[in-house]
Amino acid sequence: MSPDKALFDNIYSFTIFNDEIIISDNDRLRKYNNITNKVTTIAGGGYSNNYIENTDATKTRLSAKRANIRYNYNHETQELYISIASDEYVGIIKTNNTGNLFEKTSITSNSYGYEGPFHIDTNGDMYFVPPDAGNCLMFYQNSTNQINWLFCDDDFSYGNIYSIVMGENHRLYYAISDLYYKFGFIKQFLFEEYRIVVIVGCFCDYYGDDSRGLQTGICPLGLQYDFNSKVFYFTDIIGDTNIIRKYDPQTDKVLTLAGYNGYNSVDDGVSTSIVKINYPRDVVYYNGEIYFSDNDSRHGSRIRKITKDGLVYTVVGSYSVDYVGMEAPDINCMAMVGAIYKNNYYFIDSARNDGSLNYLTIVELDNDRCAISMIVNGSNIYYIETSFSPNSINSTIVKLGIDGNKKQIVAGEGNSDNDYILAKDTKLYGPTSLVMTLREEIMFVEPSKNRIRKIKKDGKVLTLNMTGNELHNPNWIGLYDNNLLLTNQVEFYVSDITLRCYGIKVTNSSVCGGKGLCSDDDKCDCFEGYFGKECTIPQCNGILSNETGVCSGHGDCLAYNQCWKDVYGLQCDFIPEIKYSTKVSKYSTILFTTSIKSFNLNNNNFSYKWSQISGTNTLDLSTISIAGTDKIDFGIKANDNNLIQGETYGLQLNITRSEIINGQLTVVSLPISFTINKSPIINNYNLLDASTNNPIQSSVVAGETNIKAIITNAQDAEGKAIEYAFGYFTSTNERVYLSYFSQSKNSATFKLPLFTSGKAKVFLTIRDELLDTDEKIVELTVTDPTANLNDNQLNNYIQNLVNNNTNGNSGNIPIEQLDIATSLLNKPVSNPNDPKIKQQREELRNTIVNSLVASSSSQNDTSTVLNILSSVTQNTQELKLETAITALQLTLNITNNNNQQQQDKIVALTSQLINSVLTTSSTNMQVCEIIKSILDSISKSIVQSLISGQSQLIQTNNIKTYLVKDNTVDSLAKSLNTTVISQLGISNLNLPIDALKTLFKNNGIDITNPVALGVNVVPNSIYNYLGQNITSPIFRINLFLNDGTYLNITSLLVPIEFEMTIISSVSGNNKCWYYNEKVKALRLDGVETVVINSNRVKCRVYHLTDFTTAPQSVSPSLSVAKSTRVIGSTSKVHVSGANINVMSWLTIILCSLISVLLR
Question: What distance, in Å, lies between the first and last C-alpha atoms of the chain?
């Protein structure tokens, strides 16, 4: 079902994970998938109250005693925990990703009927609200299978807990509200102190915005904590409002995000300031957008979201003016039902015990039975016979001759609810009205099922697949021409019941896929060459499109006897594609990347050759290429490539494959063409003294002279827009942009920092849409305004720079001002060991770094920020630990922007900051985590930037990163540079090619496309604070797909081998260890060690992760298990026996994954 057609009864709660929204909708769990754009039922919706393990979750009936079903989603195990309260069972069940129910856990033992919200953590421990104690929480411990009371909120005994969330460091928060008086609180339970504190809410009348948490009245229902922003999002029904709000603990402010009182727009695409929200029960913050439930009892429930641009849209669910809820109307026996046929009126009088039929012989009805609807057709009467109880399921449809004879039951004697079975074998659910169509089919309505069914002429029953804005809960139907009339005594609706096949009218040209005729309800008579219930399966050469072997077993059969034409090979089993830009710059790397979709994983013996086929001048491709002309990808070096601006060149890729069948060669030639861009030109420019507007001759004063750089005339060869940028070069020839590229600013005013050489180079640059540039460089002499100041005066001068915006503007300190302050701060001082002077300079560096954090959010050029950051943190003697950590965090933020131009610079800065941290203090876990994230992001960025046959090595004194990419796994192994590998600290790296290829095939990975191998190395000194005897660096060996996707290699049949050098002398036999993320400790299982000598070991591993060496006699945080080879198994390895220190495990996981590449 498409999301805009999905109807929800009552959305109680929902969550979002991996583009899927999981929704609690009354008595079932439903899922909306953003990729497939479909709504499906996960659990519930069945008709059996019995809970049966290992059965389809959708066949089980879920119900609740008071407040709908509840659920919790475990993101790590991808399992849904569902609470139910049915007649047979009260407790928790869960469903796995196969859709089966399993692991019933009766937490109630018929003592605690679970009905409230609950939270299950990764240990399987659960916090839940018991019945009749809505202000209390109970605790179920998974390991002991015991239940205990956790607390009762006695300060708010008349409130009920509506949401439970876990924050950082296992902090429990909950939303508790009194819906009668409409107020409540967000509170935190402190485990250690066993007390409750209020976070947001008060006994007050003020519930406006921008107030402090404890000064704002709220009535919260849904609650979520966002770990990234550290902000609470909650739904609020305080007073007469229905709003979405957030609370920021860092600013202690409450802010309304949507649903301001007094507005009533229910449309999509409207501003949050005018949208109307109805009873928002739950809220989720996901990927920068805020999702919330909108429950309108008259018009349907839906999930909506607040986009990043402040507009509100429906994600899933339908808002219908015809929707009136799902409550089934009562059915009361009427005193008389009847029908007119050929001027005669026939009736059944249910009020009389004999149930007499006028004009006919007496019809016997039992005392507890009555007739509630009647039609006459020809010589037969049809009526619904039911009991006096409302919504009886003991109903039947009876056929009776007009003469009163031959009474027989037409429908309702069985127990089945399926379509296409005989109507007499089905069960009826309180039908209330009958009609007879022109095709002599009986239609009847079942309000409790919210559906209309019909009995076809062959006696089989079918549920109508109605489309459009159907009336919900109809209790009467009628017929006019070919239209069905429906009402629920509140609203009226007319539905076209023209013959349909699978929802499409017989008059629609697309019925039966346009390849057949609709001859009956959902019955298509297909044309020649088309099959399937909707005639959507074509046949090619006698084989159906969905059968093995169609189009030689690999192509796509698109129509009758028409296979896809763009498939190559004797067996039509591969499709190549080249991705490239048709207009490029000669001053940038030019890439042509090829992908091959192969339908035959057993024949991938491809070879490649790139050649020039057109162009004014002949190119030496072997000289100007990045990785040669025999790779699947082709890259042309920037600058010295002999390309002529304005010219068009043609290349051709020849793909050759030797066929398995007869050894014949298949050659595919793919031609491409591209044009070289023409660079823009600067015709006129000036450097002026901004205070006098006079030209600057040759000299300026650092930090004081206001320089105005202006480009007065420039043009693009093709008349396209030009962007302007201004700045200067550092002493290491790095660019500092003082005005980043902008179309609207052809000038900039700035000051220069102090240079050791006393000389500065100012650049004035333009670029076009392809980033081709023209540039003018002016050299100036820069004098030092602080030459005659003592240490204290110098510090005060710098202090004034970093604390005051010298440009006179409000906001952040200008980037050039921070650079000026840094240049002065790096000047040698007379008394560097003076405690006061040193403390002042430490604070100055800290202030500059914090100012860089603020400036970087609006700074387009991350290179400038990195340059200043590197400069201000280079003196480790004047760097505090908190300053180094802030600098690392800023480096991580820049890295996450995936700027492929700054990889070397980021690694160098990270290495420098590692030195700073080690000099300043012993390493802590926070530093470890940030460095790990930086290296993860860098690795993915490098893989994405490489083409096949290319490698990259970044090497500093603390960090080594090596990545190489090639056509396939086979060629990758041959491309490994053994010299570089040895420089990293390992040698004799041997990849089991056949085992890896088998693993790829078994997991559906196309081995015809490029793969990359990465090795990341960090020093073991980074883990000094652990106190562990690790005797070699930490190595991370990983494989990646072409786009940087991390491949989780496990359960290899043949091991990967490599050798490591022992760099630390520690007593005990050194072993190869790996980090096990499941048990969060270093482990030996699945790793084999061959001791070469006292300084070297060979490791044989069956998976890829973090590796190092350590003696076997290690501290308790290193878990020692029996060495075991796990082949082809996906079973979890459970640790038993020794008492393992939990805090040590947590420490290991935070540090040992420093070199993990992106997954």
Answer: 33
**What was the pLDDT predicted at 196?**
92
**In the 8-state DSSP scheme, what is residue 1118?**
B
Distance, CA of 705 to CA of 699 (rounded, Å): 9
- What is the spatial distance between Cα 152 and Cα 129, in angstroms, rounded to a whole number? 10
Q: What is the mean pLDDT of each run of 10 residues along the chain (1159 residues)?
A: 68 77 76 81 60 55 43 57 52 57 46 60 78 82 82 87 87 90 90 89 81 90 90 89 91 89 76 87 89 80 90 82 34 47 51 40 56 78 74 76 76 89 90 83 87 88 68 74 70 76 87 90 90 91 83 75 68 82 91 82 80 94 91 89 93 86 78 94 94 91 92 91 92 85 91 87 93 93 90 89 67 80 87 88 89 70 83 85 87 77 84 75 72 86 88 89 88 85 89 88 81 88 73 89 86 91 82 80 86 91 89 52 29 27 32 31
Euclidean distance between CA atoms 201 and 207, whole angstroms: 9
Q: In this structure, what DSSP letter does residue 521 have? A: T
CB atoms within 10 A of CB 78: 11
User: Is residue 104 within 8 Å of residue 51, measured between CB atoms?
Assistant: yes
- Say how many C-beta atoms besides its own lie within 10 A of residue 440's C-beta: 11
Q: What are phi and psi of 997, to 5 degrees?
A: -65, -40
| Cα–Cα distance measured from residue 91 to residue 87, given in angstroms and rounded to the nearest whole number | 11
Query: Token digits for 455?
Result: 């009995």
Q: Which of 346, 344, 345, 348 is nearest to 336 (CA)?
A: 348
**What pairing do the DSSP bridges indicate for beta strands 665-676 and 681-689?**
unpaired
Task: Specify the pLDDT at position 997.
Answer: 86
Report d(CA 209, CA 545) in Å as an integer. Answer: 61
Tell the burial category of 106 from Cβ atoms under 10 Å away from its Cβ (0-12, 13-18, 19+). Answer: middle
Q: List residues bridging with 628 in a β-sheet.
A: none
- Give CA–CA dist 73/95, Å, rounded: 10
Contacts of 251 by beta carbon, 8 Å cutoff, 6+ apart = none
Question: Taking the CB of residue 998, how many other CB atoms lie within 10 A of it?
Answer: 16
Using the 8-state DSSP alphabet, how is residue 1140 labeled? -
Q: What is the pLDDT of residues 430-461, one digit of tens each?
A: 888 888 887 788 999 888 888 888 898 889 99
Residues 654, 594: Cα–Cα separation, whole Å: 11
Q: What angle do CA 987, 990, 996 make, to 5 degrees?
A: 145
Predicted confidence at residue 935, as pLDDT, reads: 86
Nearest one of 1044, 876, 833, 1036 to 944, comparing CA atoms? 1044
The residue among 664, 681, 651, 778 whose CA lies nearest residue 726 is 778
Element (H, E) at 1087: strand 1087-1093
Report residue 407: phi and psi, to 5°.
Answer: -70, 130
Residues sharing a CB contact under 8 Å with residue 884, sequence separation 6 or more, in sequence order: 873, 913, 916, 917, 920, 927
Contact 375, 402 (CB under 8 A): no
> Hey, what amino acid is at 1154?
I
Q: What is the DSSP letter of 440?
A: S
Q: What are the Cα distances from residue 406, in Å, to 19, 382, 401, 402, 679? A: 59, 12, 6, 9, 95
Residue 824 CA to residue 793 CA, distance in Å, equals 12
DSSP run (H or E) holding 731: none
pLDDT at 668: 86
Q: Rounded distance, CA 815 to CA 805, Å? A: 10
Q: How many CA atoms lie within 13 A of 29 on its CB side?
A: 28
- Which pLDDT score, from 0 to 100, does residue 111 have? 41
Report CA torsion sign: 715, 717, 720, 724: negative
Q: Convert 144-158 to b/e letters by CB count within 10 Å (16 or more is b).
A: eeebeebbbbeebee
Q: pLDDT tens digits, residue range 571-615?
A: 677 888 899 999 999 988 999 988 888 776 666 778 999 999 999
Contact between 694 and 706 (Cβ < 8 Å):
no
